[in-house]
Design a protein that fits this description.
383 residues; 16 helices; mainly alpha
């Protein structure tokens, strides 16, 4: 099965060729590695030595080691042929990997609370680092797996995606992303598509509010089409949000206000990381409005693509976002790369750090947007 991924490219490093040829195993190894790093940060060595640094270690790993590995190992632009796509999309191994993130993160969330209360050597900086570390796992691996799952029609996958989102208090993403973002992507109507020259700090606050309200509005409309009311048993947002509240109450009953702070803190970090990724994925890209008032159909040209190998393994190939939006139900292991898609200069971990500093972000990304739309700059101001 693994050789199906291998398309020779003389620009690839030996390491990237090896990993590309063994993607099947590497998808699982990468997910296990991140969870293992969090466990090791607590258990390995004396709990008092470098405690604060160790509490932050997974954050440092994701935002330093992975970008460096992306740079050194290189990119993977190989694509599957049609026969391989058909064979691979039905391989239950890949579904197991994404579904397994649900129990892993649920256990990690609970264990993280135990470690948080027992790790007496942590100062305030270390305690913040621990909450951020658990939240970063939830926002990267957890929500990325949920993103894959909510696009699927199989009940186990779809429900697992909703449950994962409940663990980060962002259940509305299940509805807004599929029925809002994928319909309105790269248009002014989409709150998950950042505009040209818009800063991250302008984008994220409005994304919190509008994605929440949009999710409920879309759900009410979906229920109305089935002649169902807001309080219908089929209003899944009520169930998933109720679960988030139940988890919060459980943490409060267990650890009081510290438990609430921990759960809400990890959730906030997780869904904020999601919105930072949303900011990156469509920055400055726009679908043109046609004469009939509708927007052109979604193509691989309306999402930024990245073929950086290590971060794609870590994020279930989410960075092949151009193909995901052109073919939303295509499974992560079969996503393709398109030469004509706009290309990010680095993987998401690097780009997220860049987005935190708007002048640097604009210096790197604005010229790329302008070059991509050369001769068609009116698109950037098309409302």
């Amino acid at each position: 099965m693994s050789e199906q991924f291998s398309t020779y490219n003389p620009k690839k490093t030996k390491a990237s060729l090896f990993i590309t040829q063994n993607k099947r195993q590497c998808f699982a190894v990468t997910q296990i590695l991140i969870a293992a790093i969090i466990l090791a940060a607590y258990y390995v060595g004396d709990n008092t030595q470098y405690a604060d640094l160790r509490a932050w270690f997974v954050v440092l790993f994701i935002f330093t080691v992975i970008p460096v590995a992306d740079h050194l190992i290189g990119e993977d632009d190989s694509n599957l042929d049609e026969e391989s796509i058909e064979n691979l999309k039905n391989d239950k191994y890949y579904r197991f990997i994404t579904i397994s993130v649900l129990p892993i993160y649920a256990c990690l969330l609970v264990w993280g609370m135990v470690a948080f209360t027992q790790w007496e050597a942590l100062s305030l900086i270390g305690q913040i680092g621990w909450i951020v570390s658990i939240g970063v796992y939830g926002g990267s691996i957890g929500i990325t797996a949920a993103h894959e799952l909510v696009h699927k029609t199989e009940k186990l996958e779809n429900i697992s995606g909703g449950l994962l989102l409940s663990l980060v208090s962002y259940a509305g993403f299940k509805i807004e992303h599929v029925y809002g973002h994928h319909v309105n992507v790269s248009t002014p109507a989409d709150t998950s598509s950042s505009r040209y020259d818009q800063s991250l700090y302008s984008f994220v606050p409005q994304a919190y509010v509008k994605n929440f309200t949009n999710a409920w509005g879309l759900q009410v409309k979906r229920l109305a089409r089935q002649n169902l009311g807001f309080f219908s048993f089929k209003n899944e947002l009520i169930w998933y949000n109720a679960l988030s509240v139940a988890i919060l109450l459980g943490f409060i009953a267990w650890q009081g206000w510290i438990g609430a702070l921990y759960f809400l803190g990890t959730s906030f970090v997780a869904f904020t990381l999601l919105e930072i990724i949303n900011y990156i994925e469509h920055y400055g890209l726009h679908r043109q409005k046609m004469e009939n008032g509708r927007y052109e159909r979604v193509t691989p040209e309306h999402s930024w693509n990245s073929n950086h190998l290590i971060s794609n393994l870590y994020l279930f190939q989410l960075q092949r976002h151009s193909d995901h939006h052109a073919n939303a139900i295509r499974r992560y292991q079969t996503l393709r790369s398109y030469d004509y898609s706009p290309q990010l200069p680095a993987g998401y971990a690097t780009m997220a750090l860049l987005a935190l500093v708007p002048p640097l972000w604009r210096k790197v990304m604005n010229p790329r947007v302008e070059a991509y739309y050369q001769g068609r700059m009116d698109v950037l101001t098309d409302g």
